[in-house]
Amino acid sequence: MTSTHPLSAPLSALVIATASGAPMRSERPKPIHLLCGRPMLSYTLDALAEVGVDRVNVVTGPMVDWVSKRVLEDPPDVALNFVEQRIERGPADAALIGLSGFDDFDDDGDVIVLPADLPLLEADTLQRLVDAHRASGSVCTVLSATVDDPGEHPRVLRDRHGKVASVTREIELVGDERDSDEIALGVYIVRRGLLAPAIRRTKPDPVDGLHRLVDVVGVLADSGHPTNSAPVVTNLTDLRPVDDRRLLAESEAELRRRTNLRWLDHGVSMIDPERTYIDATVRLGVDVTLFPGTILQGNTVIGDGCEIGPDTRLDRCSVGRDSVVEKAMARLSTIGDNCRVGPFAVLEPGSELSDGTSTGPFYAARAGE
User: Which pLDDT score is estimated for 84?
Assistant: First the structure.
């Protein structure tokens, strides 16, 4: 069976965000644990928006209201819908539920299916996956990589003609199948009209009863549909799921590095980038200088020409142009233009400093003062 799928077919996405907080030893669902001030899930949604996805259905567990409320505080630039998987039956079942959230019947479009816990996944990688999928004419393409040590990753298996026949979990491999060094990375793009029938033909795992997305590839291949893999990943670390607090911290460090590099390219100076912490929600003007130990959080805005730090923490604050804030701490406060704050100043929530204010050392301000 061949495909005549157009290169301009509509593109949508399903994000599987059903994980509870158990991996993090937390009551908060895993997809909304914060990285650089934003929920983990938001980074996945941003990447999808950048590749031109027109709609994303997010499948959550029973805490759908908690997840949707947190993500919509800083909504992505893509149409978004939340669907609840009330009973855990695996990611394939979650994808089937997610398909029910589309309000149209465009079966000829493609749908990207991926988990919510890949905050380092970049749009360039997704774009290469989409391009490879459409260039091949396949109905299903698996994001993959060739590695020296596959470990416990699912393997991409091919038939005697070299075509993708299935994706098989490591514990199910037999004989020569164990020699495969191409691993599947949990991200798929599938013809939307074929995904639901393929999921319904998957069999539950005999141990835990869950339906796995990896089985969809084999179902489609067995039906005669062309399936493919796309080994287009340049950095495997970007595709490592965040499954615990240690990996959360490591991912945050990488996202902070990327954030700092972006600001350095946009006219901000950092004396020591490794000791400068900027949330992804912060906005900085040009010719801003950040000294070591500076922490900028929330929707903090720093005006042009400011000097911030050393050892300063500003949380959801606004600082006007050409101000200096040194060895200070402030929350939900406003600092005007040409101010001199600190050293050793504390601004409590609601504090406001008018233009030209010089606090001197050991200053403390309360709301309304």
Answer: 96
